[in-house]
Amino acid sequence: MRKLQFACLASALSLAATSVYAQDASEAPADGDIVVTANRTSSLLSKTPIAMTAVGGDDLIASGITNPTQLEESVPNLSIVRGNGLQITIRGVTSTDGTEKGDPSAAFMVNGVYLARPQAQEVSFFDIERVEVLRGPQGTLYGRNSTAGVVNILTVQPKFEFGARADVSYGNFNALNGTAVVNIPAGETIAFRVAANIDQRDSYLIDGAPNDGVTLNKFKDNKSVRLSALFKPTPDLSLLLVGDYSKVKGNPTNGVPTTQFYSNITSGGRQNFSAPTYLGADPDVARTLSRTQAQQAFRDNEEKGVMGELNYTMGNVTLTYLGSYRESERREFSNAANGAFSADFAGSYWQTSQEVRLAYGGDGPLQAQVGGYYFKEKSGIAFFLNNLLGPNTRFGFPQDPTIAENKSVFGQATYEIAPDLKITGGVRYSHDLKSRVGNTVVDFYDRIGTSYSIGNFIRRQINQNNDAKRTFSRVTWRAGVDYDTSLGLIFASVSTGYKAGGFNDGCETPPAGQPNPQNCQLPANALYYDPETLTAYEAGFKFRFSPAFRLNGTIFHYDYAGLQLSQLSDICGGPCQVTTNAAKAKVDGVELDAQIQPSDRFTVRLALNWLDARYDEYAPAYNDTSVTPNVRRSVNFAGRALNRSPKWSWVAGANYVLPVGEGRIVFDAQTAARSRYEVTDLANFAYFYQPAATKTDVSVTYNAPQDRFYFAAFAENLENNLVVTGATTGLFGAVTFADPRIYGVRAGVKF
Predict the structure, then answer these.
(1) What's the pTM value of the predicted model, to 2 decimals?
(2) Alpha-carbon gap, residue 297 to 120, rounded angstroms
(3) What angle (nearest 5°) sits at the alpha carbon of residue 22, between those of residues 18 and 26?
């Protein structure tokens, strides 16, 4: 019945959301539309039958967006927060496992190359042509683990003319972000581009219990460089090569004790699962770290990679090859928010991906492409918690190697069956292999001092062996129809998404009667978890009623099966992350946005989103240790909202341009609001929430004639709301929050 209601509403509304932003003037269509590559081929945003948002590079600079977490106000139903790397949530769909054996649910890409590790995703955010965010499963053309959607960062390619630009911003918390770019043509067929970025700021936390020689700053101290080369000997042949290197440093301390935001936390009475009391303390009090940091925390990571894209056109057929190789080195030390212990992490990663596509186009009714994809990631890590299980102990997880491998083939075709009426069909076969070898251990030392200086190693106790290997396969597909009317595009689709399963810590007990040399204790259904799958029904329009009024919208329904959720457990002799499959979840939503431009000087932006993302069936079990003997109980999550999925959100913004001589002053103001949403701590069955909140940003910018230079003053989050992005209780209890009020100036020049 619910699907029938959805189908009727889809027929009545036919809504699909996009937001329209300008891009480079040399490429932008005359009507202000933008060229995107969401379908792996170039098309106008207004003619692309997908729920997506595209933000041009100049708009990112004008809005002061210098990292992915700031995209939330520009993209409907998007949340990007910092945890163990970036955690991306689209329409309530997310992944809570940021470890080397987990995968994100939203595919994060740079120039079409999938980045598997959330810790590597923020350093590519400079010298950008545009950002494309595709909402909903992209199981055909993008494929790997894209049940939530895709975030694709497209960097600026070299151009065949000399140019340079520099942009810098400085604000409170000693926030400095600067980018310098030089574009150099080397003849008529080859061009180079060099871009360098520095991104620094102090911690948002206030050190309320200082320790001599230990500081919270700097939270972020990143330096990056990117070198691009474009070789285009003929109009039909091009080769793009990109190499990048980043040094990622700083202090990872990012949370405060949970009691500074909440009271009456009922994690001990799990069957009650009632809401705590949100304290709403003064922001300066709430972000004060009241526990002494025993030792200087640090982050000292390195990211580097190369990629190449070859395009060769033969009449109506284009051959594309996209290949990449990346390496990451991580070394991090952190103190627990409660001051009880510290954590030490070291890891090495590499990944490679190869993709070949063959696209057929032209003026005929058929557009089609087929391709193959290969991805492999390998890592070796060592993660230890110091003094957790007693004085002079290190409880940890040395694992080497952990391997993920994907092989896929795909195809998609669009056919115009009548004038302006098209149908689309696509299919993808994915095969994933995952494996890991390692241990869960306790190491004993003769001394681990109060500053966590480590003495001599005594012995190692192996709590369990971690040895697992499994393959997963799935066919995903997409079917759609679109019609280009006099008002604009109307479309509808049904698509599926797939995210591979995986394994938890431990190894599988062999069949009865067979030897068990590794002392494996877990049955297969406890060691492994299954893939998650999603079927999305979506319909929409992209209308332009006049040059002054654009209206876009989406209506969608998701059937979500096998939702992968991660929580802490003590099955390995200490705290271990365990992932299981929730039975079912449902997501319904409507997204609307409009742009109204009554004059060339004045523009109004409006957006309204309704989202109902909830567990349909989910009843995780736990051992109730408050009674003797222990009793096995469960908590019923049915009907509860998925994390970070507010029921209502809206944006209202205005932009006014005041000519000053041949230049102009631009006044911009925007308020974004979200209703209350949940942030559940599954490890302790503790329920947290973020109350309804608004975020207001304002800026004033002077642009010189021909946009040769600009300077601006800005302020963001005028309300100074500390929006909760994560909350846990118990041994690892902490609250993390989004940016407080920030303000500053920015300037830039180009020629």
Answers:
(1) 0.90
(2) 19
(3) 135
